[in-house]
Write a structure and sequence with these properties.
It contains 9 helices and 15 strands. By secondary structure, the chain is of the alpha/beta class. It folds into 2 domains: 2-113 and 296-329, Medium-chain alcohol dehydrogenases, catalytic domain (Quinone Oxidoreductase, Chain A, domain 1, Alpha-Beta Complex); 126-266, Rossmann fold. Helix 1 crosses helix 9 (305-313) and helix 2 packs across helix 7. The protein is globular and about 60 Å long. The relative contact order is 0.17.
């Protein structure tokens, strides 16, 4: 028996509570991990509140991220005592996740935690920061250079946006940070943003093409925001799209693609192949300013996770939310 947040559902009722649980059959996992730190993400908030059918089976322990110490392994790549991190793979949706003191998962889903990153820092990064790094790599692979022009980051005060802003600014890119909360301007400029864009500017119905403004973009919003960003890209600009915080729809035309040669690059962090995950985490270990990372972090104890979750759906969360599970582990 161990502590976990458990989501249960039957024909009459849906229940979410923190309590003692017993692990079910574990035939689909070959590495047992003592969880040190986890996080609370937008997807976890959807799962906990039931606002979207994120959870595919019940009962379910939410938590798409965790960092911890291998307790027992039947996988050739891991042994007891190894520090590991997990992001995605349907954990917290189809397979019991990280908001628990113990996890048992497939070893192929794990990434060895790079030297120089503590387990607390790994969860301060979490899926959000790892996704931001994948977006930065996507822009680089498309040939975007700092001297080509400004890079716009939507949802800049959220987890992905905060880390993307920091990473891009550190690489010499001039970052335009989009936010619906203009009182976050100081926070975003401290992360490296060169300018602040009111989200309202990107929320009106998009024209097929607008005045060229940006050479690159990291978008977490989708919907009308992404449509407007695409319409404002410079000739041969590149957009890394990784989210749907505004909408899953994309009300645009082919004009940005066939008249300006704009590239729309999709970034998926959930099923991303392991070599790309390892490369992203290695880059995070060297490229991310851990002092700036700390300025993004709020710590929420397990007891408060359930009541904190609805704040994500209101857009009332800045940066990253981390959850100590067994912090004495490291």
């Amino acid at each position: 028996m161990f502590d976990a947040i458990l989501i249960e559902k039957d024909e009459d009722e849906r229940r979410v509570a923190l309590g003692q649980v017993e692990f079910p059959a574990l035939e689909d996992g070959d590495v047992a991990v003592d969880v040190a730190w986890s996080t609370l993400n937008y997807k976890d908030a959807l799962a906990i509140t039931g606002s979207s059918p994120v959870v595919r089976s019940f009962p379910m322990v939410p938590g798409i991220d965790f960092a911890g110490i291998v307790k027992e392994s039947r996988h050739a790549d891991y042994k007891a005592g190894d520090r590991v991190v997990l992001n995605g793979w349907g954990v917290g949706e189809k397979h019991w996740g990280g908001l628990a003191k113990r996890a048992q998962v497939k070893g192929d889903w794990l990434v060895p935690l790079p030297d120089g990153i503590s387990m607390r820092q790994a969860m301060a990064i979490g899926t959000a920061g790892y996704t931001a790094m994948l977006c930065v790599i996507a822009l680089e692979e498309a040939g975007l250079m700092p001297d080509m022009g400004e890079v716009v980051v939507t949802g800049a005060s959220g987890g992905v946006g905060s880390v993307a802003t920091t990473l891009l600014a550190a690489k010499g890119y001039r970052v335009a940070a989009v936010t619906g909360s203009l009182n976050e301007a100081g926070y975003l400029k401290d992360l490296g943003a060169a300018s602040i864009v009111n989200r309202a500017e990107l929320s009106e119905t998009a024209r097929p093409l607008n005045k060229e403004r940006w050479a690159g973009a990291v978008d977490v919003a989708g919907g009308m925001v992404l449509a407007n960003v695409l319409s404002m890209m410079k000739y041969r600009g590149v957009v890394a799209a990784c989210g749907l915080a505004a909408s899953m729809d994309l009300p645009t035309s082919v004009a940005p693609f066939i008249l300006r040669g704009v590239t729309l690059r999709g970034v998926d962090s959930v099923m991303c192949p392991k070599p790309e995950r390892v490369a992203a985490w290695d880059r995070l270990a060297t490229d991310l300013d851990m002092r700036k990372l700390e300025s993004m972090v709020a710590e929420v104890p397990m007891d408060d996770v359930i009541e904190t979750a609805p704040r994500f759906l209101k857009g009332d969360v800045r940066g990253r939310v981390i959850v100590p599970i067994s912090p004495d582990l490291g």
